TrEMBL record:
Organism this protein belongs to: Modestobacter marinus
Gene3D superfamilies: P-loop containing nucleotide triphosphate hydrolases
EC number of this enzyme: 2.7.4.25
HAMAP family the UniProt entry points to: Cytidyl_kinase_type1 (MF_00238)
Gene label: cmk
The protein, known as: Cytidylate kinase
GO molecular function, one term: kinase activity
Length: 222
């Protein structure tokens, strides 16, 4: 079977998570959702009630939290201090707050250390995020950067949320744009394709087609 590391980076709403899960299952590989780690860290920050602009306080809140994410059959598991936050991390409050928390360099250093330690335990792993190919695993076997047209990304997110009202879809599109701009323009580990990443545009492709494309790339990358 496949041995190595597949990184899947890109903006929100490209179908990255579902593709990463399917690819991991098909390769018999472990799976790590680093976005879930940043979202769990954000729960810890929100619960600590600290000022989001106080980067030292934000860092302390993350450092003192016990953050757990599943990497195998338990990939859905997300816990902060023993509490299941898998549903809460997908909510509006966390989604609104996660980018500023993720932009704090000391927070990134802590979580990147954890990510590398988790990856080191697996012979085969698929890791999704924003900076996996550029920063976390620069020597990965295969780096994929998944993109899609902004309208396709907003529509995908709307479908996930069951939203059909055009005004609401426009709001979703604006939220995605804001978060991607924040993630792309931060000083530490901005969202961008690694120089050796294969860019895959999922606009107009269904999930299975993207999964097959990544699997083909993984087979030839070994
Ligand atoms: O992938 P997801 O949308 O769950 O990521 C949530 C947020 O976490 C991103 O918008 C980004 O701010 C942050 N993130 C990051 N680096 C990663 C993964 C996620 O900064 N590797």
């Amino acid at each position: 079977g496949f041995r190595g590391q597949v990184t899947l980076d890109g903006p929100s709403g490209t179908g990255k998570s579902s593709v990463a899960r399917d690819v991991a299952a098909r390769l018999g590989a472990a799976y790590l959702d680093t976005g879930a780690m940043y979202r769990a860290a954000t729960v810890a920050v929100l619960d600590a009630g600290v000022d989001l602009t106080d980067t030292d306080a934000v860092t302390r809140a993350v450092a003192s939290a016990d953050i757990q994410v599943g990497t195998a059959a338990d990939a859905e598991l997300v816990r902060v201090d023993g509490v299941d936050v898998a549903a809460r991390i997908r909510g509006a409050e966390v989604t609104r707050t996660v980018s500023p928390v993720s932009a704090v360099p000391a927070v990134r250093r802590m979580l990147v250390d954890r990510q590398r330690a988790l990856v080191a335990e697996a012979d085969a792993v698929v890791v999704e995020g924003r900076d996996i190919g550029t920063v976390v695993l620069p020597a990965a076997t295969l780096k994929v950067y998944l993109t899609a047209a902004p309208e396709a990304r907003a529509q995908r997110r709307a479908d996930q949320l069951g939203v059909t009202d055009p005004t609401k879809i426009a709001e979703i599109a604006a939220d995605l744009r804001r978060r991607d701009e924040y993630d792309s323009s931060r000083a530490d580990s901005p969202l961008r394709p690694a120089v050796d990443a294969v860019v895959v545009d999922s606009t107009g492709l269904d999930r299975d087609a993207v999964v097959e494309r990544v699997l083909d790339l993984a087979r030839t990358a070994v």
